[in-house]
Structure formats: C-alpha cells, structure tokens
Write a structure and sequence with these properties.
six-stranded antiparallel beta sheet; single chain; about 260 residues; about 15% helix; alpha+beta
Length: about 260
C-alpha cells in the first residue's frame, strides 16, 4: 500500500477560478482545462500554510490537493473568505497517493475517480487503493516537498523553492502574503533553502535538525534505503556549506541544493 494519503478539495462554480486566484500564490487564471500547476496558500506573513497541486478538470471545477496538512481544516479556513463569491467546496474522503505511468508534464486527467497529474516520465495518482510509493524518491530528487505537520505555517516560499516550480506569481495581482513573498523575491536575503541529503541513519519527517544545540533546519520527506536513507530537508545556508554535518549522533551528507 502507498505510504501517503490525502484528501482533495474541489472548488466549483462560476467564481471558482477568481476565488482561487485571489487566495493562492500561483496564476490560477492561466490554468487551462486538463492541466495542473503548483501553488500554495500563504498566511499574511508570507509563511506557507499549505503547499498545493491544483488541477482544472472542467471550466468551473478545480481540484486542490494539499501536500500535507488537513484538507477539511484548510477548506473551512478558505470558506471564511468566500463572501459573495459563487463557489462551492467539497472535501473528499481519504485518498491514496501512488506512482503512475508516464503522462505529459502538467497534464491532469480524471478516470474512474482517480486523478492523474502528469510529470513527464511518470505521474502521480490520487484516489487509487493500490500501488507503490516510488514517487516519494522521485519527488525528493526533484525537490517537490510534502510538508509534515511541524513545517506547516513555518516556512517562507524560498525555503521550498516555490519560484523554481512555478508555485508563485508576482504579476497577477494581490494574494495573502504577497508583500513578504515579493520582498524576498526582489531583495533576497532568505537564509534557508531546500536540499537533498543522505544520512547514515534514518531521520524522522518533521524532525528538527540541530548542530551544537542550534536549530538549523527541518526534515520534510524521507526515503529509507538499505544503506543510505535519502531526505528532502530545509537547511540554513551557512551550515549546508559543509559537505558533512554532525547532527546529534547522525551524520548528514548534503547532496544538492534547489535554487529559487
């Protein structure tokens, strides 16, 4: 069985696109039917409340998949901003996330209740009740984060390399947290970034990384291999300049860095 589950949020109605575009960080209005994009919902201080994949399946129907967190709570919070917009919300039952066959990158298809999100040489399937978790290793390699509870509402867009994956747009108008996100985009200065790393012992997703008693990052995803567990982590730039870090009995080797 896949190791991950999620619940999707379907936004539907004549104002679904405008509502999503006003709340989420990506350019939802540019999304064509049958396509998906990366996005996020930020808080007023620019921190990532939820990292998202959004698929437009019909003219007025968008399926939002949170990559971590509770979809029901997220939907309830979003509803507070509906006001007079003509948009409805439906939260799915718990769905399995698993690996899928090759599908054009950015394509989104729905078949027999299963959502397929294309990644080129593979795809992500949401809704299936069987499969494997090979996608986790691929997403760690590609820097596609899945946020543990400990990371929700604590990371800024540069720490998740959101510009690199097209999850934030600065030419579409206002959205929550835009001012902080834009300031980091134009002025820079953020000191934590996304990296892949190997360790000599497995780490825990959501684990705080400490060097000499100082918090220097967090583990987002973990793929356990027989000899060298590989993780997607957020690390302070200063400590990640070293090839090897000693973390309270665990040795961490930084493999790659994802730029904004």
């Amino acid at each position: 069985m896949p190791s991950r589950t999620t619940r999707t949020i379907t936004l539907a109605g004549p104002d679904a696109a405008a509502f999503a575009n006003a709340q989420f960080s990506s350019d939802v209005l540019s999304l064509a039917v049958g396509r998906w994009q990366w996005s996020a919902w930020l808080d007023p201080k620019g921190r990532v409340r939820a990292l998202l994949q959004i698929a437009r399946l019909d003219d007025e129907r968008y399926v939002v998949m949170p990559r971590g967190g509770d979809a029901a709570s997220l939907a309830a919070d979003l509803k507070r901003f509906v006001f007079r917009s003509k948009v409805t919300f439906v939260v799915s039952d718990e769905l399995h996330v698993s690996d899928g066959a090759a599908l054009i990158e950015g394509d989104a298809r729905e078949h027999d209740g299963v959502l397929h999100l294309g990644e080129g040489d593979a795809s992500l399937r949401i809704g299936t009740h069987e499969g494997d978790d090979a996608w986790i290793a691929r997403h760690i390699t590609n820097g596609y984060a899945w946020l543990p509870e400990e990371a929700l509402g604590s990371l800024l867009p540069p720490a998740l390399s959101m510009e690199r994956i097209g999850a934030v747009a600065f030419n579409k108008g206002c959205f929550p947290g835009q001012e902080i996100a834009a300031r980091l985009h134009f002025l820079g200065g953020h000191k934590r970034h996304l990296r892949t790393a190997q360790s000599d012992h497995p780490l825990r997703e959501g684990q705080t990384l400490n060097v000499d008693g100082r918090d220097v990052g967090i583990v987002l995803m973990q793929q356990e291999l027989s000899s060298s567990p590989t993780s997607l982590v957020v690390l302070d730039d200063m400590v990640s300049q070293a090839e090897t870090l000693e973390l309270q009995g665990v040795r961490l080797h930084v493999l790659s860095t994802f730029a904004d």
